[in-house]
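Weekly structure sync, notes
Attendees: PL, DS, HV (note-taker this week)

Item 1: Outer membrane protein beta-barrel domain-containing protein
DS walked through the input record. Source organism listed as Hymenobacter cyanobacteriorum. Sequence as pasted into the shared doc:
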Amino acid sequence: MRRFLFLLLLPGPAAMAQAVDSAQTATIPPKSNFKFSVITELGFSMGSTSTPNMQAFFNQNNIERDSRADPFVHLNFGGRYKRLKMLLQTGYGFNYFPPNEKDARVARRTYASYSGAMLGYDVLNDRNRRLYLNVGVGGLNYDYAVINRTGQPVVFQNLPQYSQAGNIPSLQLRNTYWDINLELSQREKRKSSIASVLRIGYRRGWQASAWQSAAFQLLDAPQDRISQFYFQGGFYLSRNYKASR
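Item 1 (cont.): predicted structure, written out as C-alpha cells:
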C-alpha cells in the first residue's frame, strides 16, 4: 500500500516543475520596428499669437479683440523612415469663442490659416511611445475687421453708400515663420495603425511684414513679426511597411 501511494505521488513534483518552467519561458513580445510609414493626421490646435505693433494701435484707439486665443483645425500628411519623420501641414482657423458684444470697438478675426513643412527625429522611443524633436518652416495668414458699434439707423438699400467712421473692413498680415516643437506620439503597432499625437511648440516670423488691407492701399502701416506659442492634439492614421523582427 505504501509503495502504491509513493508511485502515485511521484509524477507530482515533475508536473509542478514543468508548470514553473513554462511560466519562466513566457516573454513580452518585442516592440514593433516598422521601417517606413505613410502618415495622415487630423487634429485641433490652439495658439496664442503676439503682434505687438498692431496691438499697440488697437490699445491707442480703444479697440478690443474678440479673443486672444487662435483655434485651428489641421491636416498633416507625410512619412517616416526609421527615426526620421517629415510632415506637410495645413491649418484653418475658426471662431470657437463667442463674439465680443459689450465693447464699442472690436477687432474681429475674419480669417486665419497656416501651411508649412516640418522635419523630426525621435530622440526617445520605447515600446509604446515616440518623442520627436521637430523643426519646420511655413507661413501664417491673418485677416481682421474692426467694428465700430453705434446706434445710428441705416436704411438697408443705402448700405453701399454708407460710410461709418471707425470701421476698418480689412487688416491683413502675411508672415513666414520658423517652427520648433516637441511631439509625443504613440508607436505604430500594426501594418495599419491609429494613434494619438500631442505637440507643444513655438513659431516666430523670419522678419517683420507690413500690415495690408483688401479694401484700400495702406501707407505707413505698422510692421509685425509674429510670435506664437501653440498646442496641438490629434490622431493619425499610418500605413506601415517592412517590419523587421
